[in-house]
Amino acid sequence: MIKMFIRVILVLIFAANCLPALSQVKCAFDVKGKVIDQESQEPVEGAYIWIKELEKGAVTNHNGNFHFRDICEGHYELNVEILGYASKNIQLNVHENVNMTIRLESKDYLIDGVEIVGHKDAVNTLNSITHLGKDLLDENRGGNLGETLKALPGVTTFTTGANISKPVIHGMHSNRIMILNNEVRQEGQQWGGEHAPEVDPFMAEDISVIKGAETVRFGSEAMGGVILVTPPKLPVAAGTSGTATLVGGSNGWNGAAAFSFEGGLKDLEGFGYRIQASSRIGGNIKSPAYYQDNTGMKELNFSGAVGYNSKKLGMELFYSRFATTIGILSDSHTGNSSDLEELIANGRPFSNPDFTYHIENPRQEVTHQLLKAKGHYHLNNDGVINLTYAFQQNNRQEFDIRRGELNDRAALDLELFTNTLDINYEHPSSKNWNGSIGISALQQANNNIPGTGVTPLIPNYDMVNLGAFMIEKYTKGPLELEGGARFDYRYVDAARYNQGELDEQDFTFQNFTAFLGAGYSLNKNWLLTTNLGSAWRPPNINEQFSQGLHHGAAAVEIGDPNLVSEQALKWVNTVNYSSEKLNAELTGYYHKINNYIYLNPTGEEYVSLRGTFNVFEYLQTDAGFWGIDLTTDYTILPSLEWFIKGSLIRAKNLTDQNYLPFIPTDRLETGLVYQADKIGKLELSHLSVAKQRREPDVDLAPAPPGYNLWTARISRDLLVKEKSSLKGSLGITNIFNTEYKDYMNRFRYFTHEMGRNFTLRLKYEF
Amino acid sequence: MKKLSVLTLIAMVSVALLSCSKDDPVPELDQEVITNVSLTFTEVDENDDIIGSAMEYNASSDEGLGLGGDVVIDDIDGLVSGKRYLLKITAFNGIANEDVTEEIEEEGDHHQFFFVGSAFIGNTSFLEYAYADEDEDGNPIGLMGYVTVNENAGSENGIFNLVLRHDLDKNHEGADNPSWENFVQAGGESDLDIDFDVIF
Known about the structure:
The complex is a heterodimer.
Chain A: H1 2-16, E1 29-37, E2 48-51, E3 56-59, E4 65-71, E5 74-81, E6 88-94, E7 98-104, E8 129-132, H2 134-139, H3 145-149, E9 155-160, E10 164-169, E11 178-181, E12 184-185, E13 206-210, H4 215-218, E14 226-230, E15 239-249, E16 254-264, E17 271-282, E18 286-287, E19 290-291, E20 297-309, E21 313-327, H5 337-346, E22 363-378, E23 384-399, E24 412-427, E25 433-448, E26 460-476, E27 479-498, E28 501-521, E29 526-537, H6 541-545, E30 547-550, E31 555-558, E32 566-578, E33 582-608, E34 611-637, E35 640-653, E36 658-659, E37 667-676, E38 680-689, E39 707-720, E40 725-733, E41 757-765
Chain B: H1 2-19, E1 36-44, E2 55-61, E3 71-73, E4 84-93, E5 98-99, H2 100-106, E6 111-116, E7 127-131, E8 144-149, E9 158-166, E10 189-198
Antiparallel strand pairs in B: 1-2, 1-4, 2-3, 4-5, 4-8, 6-9, 7-8, 9-10
């Protein structure tokens, strides 16, 4: 966003300059060029090219190209600058059209007193995009992906107890948003509310959230938005570096340790590698008045990558493994609906345990492995071909409280294999046009591993999804326009045993989606963007096939194989103001989803020898979502900043004119950040979350009241040397140990959220 | 170089594609389910010696927790006021052909029956239960016990609500009372929750 903004300003300056003094000489020469990294020969995007005498500027595009038009004959001095590289002055003689290559030498030491604030968006889109960069990520290290993303306005979480949290973008979660983990769409068992994404935030250098529909670029599930988890680029030069992080928290006595090491080889220029590992452990979480029984967790992740980059060719091989064991609040597994009602009436768990790290049933054990091979090749015409292949294996086991040796047998045991192949071609950027075409293929197989002793919740299935897309972008002066279209085809072949009979069904879905976006810079302060995108989502396998008891919810859920695809239209508008003192961004959106699939209470009860259960069925309706997100950042004094972040969302079932369940409540966070050399950085913030007054007609319990939380943190450099540094921070969340429940927690009916928590973070870079 | 990498990728893709397609589903026999419960009442004298013949009442659900099954619960219609009975409970899983009674016995410290409903609790109650078995810690289970019918019973019918709790805290205050209304406070979950009608 910032980059585009600067680019637009520069183009504006360029347009305003008519240079009357030189109008006699010939002024119709083109000065073109490409900026590349001297070592890797990779194009350098976002470099500023400045012609001193003409006061003209340009910024290189993602191919490293820049272009000045209508340059007069003469001698000039050209200055090239970009963070991370030594700046360069070049003599430029213009007597004819010029086409030059500029090689920049990378500068991998920190510049004194300069904070690196530059950021390259993970995706080049006109859609509203916000991100958590390295600094913000470092400040939030130690949490899971959902918790980490809460720092962004418009992003909330859908949680199941203290350890399972799913990111929510503008009220959408699970299969309605997409997570790209290192450029690969994450394929786990996302359908479940208690199935958290299998992503290690320690791996990321940047996490970005696109809030608009990006179905065209990424495929169906991107209807509500996209989360991009991006690791740092592999090194291309000789030398080694690394980081080590330690995080400790007082609530649950949780700890996290992470390590990463990377380097290149002297004899093989362009070659780079990285190994990375992280681990987390936590015990019973404490609400202000009690420990939550069996809420410990353990996680161990590692990854490795090797890559090679030359002038034309880039290749990368990446492997990661994620493994977690999560304890589920034991009280949440109720036998029947009257148990559940008693528990809700009690308002807190009946159990009163002590602290322990020990995890018992019910628990989840999940592993996720990703193998990715990626390559790109620069064609002679300046176009680029990108190819990414990935293989993912996801194994999810859920253990219930059962009798005897069955306790050691998973009640749900699913294995999901996914192959994805993405090929796209970025055509050479011509005068005002940039764009790409691509195809993507996904093949998936889901298997229930036999022997659970429980009739599976979802069937075994094969799925194939093929998509082809085209995106084109037009840039002229302060205006940028972008449009694209995509066609998708999906085939699903499912098989299961239903009441003793083999039941095989297959489905085909196909859909066309398109989007149109625009960005316009009014002047150097104001920037407007708008994006209108259509999207679709085929019904998920659980929505089609659920038939039976959902133990965690004491509910019988009934799917419908005849559900049709959801069709959506999302319109996102952003106004951005930035000046020296004030940065502000306001995003407003409207999201209409036809055939919206939701779980509706039928009001009926299912009677069994275990008692009665409420019956829910999957239905379709038309739903409308709208809302706004606001971020402002005001510099009161050079050392003192005041920020406000807020979001509100309204969602309605348009057919029945009532409200949808689990829609995030209005929230407003405001805080002060004070920075001084001697102390470091001091932050104090206050979060206010309103009560959800727009409740669905039927719910197990009324929405909990709103709440207010205070958070404080101090962070500073503890040790700075030429080649290494040690940073530390100490934070307190929920300072006043407030007892509260959050509407977006599936366990809110009977547990409070986490109480006060002190967190100490140390990060060593070398 | 380019050709090579593309070829490698194609090879990798085809290997991976071959290695994963869906397996044929395997029907699961639901293990955690109880499909048949029987209550056997036998009249006893003051010395707990058997003096009558056994009366058996059943509750069954052929599909267990699966949908589409029929739940059939007998009426308890043979109790006589003023008499005392030995009550034995058995549980069976007809889907996996398993004797659940044995499992409950083996894990006695994790299981306990409660006898609630209007037949045991409230102004018009007319039954009283006493545990006659215990687990390894000396706490009651409820697979065996004695039911005493009030002398004045017979004017009103009532509900015999049989509850089996799993994974409860047996040392919780009140848990030694077989007709403890607030059994949920001891934690755990219900494996059985059946309403038998008691009629005279």
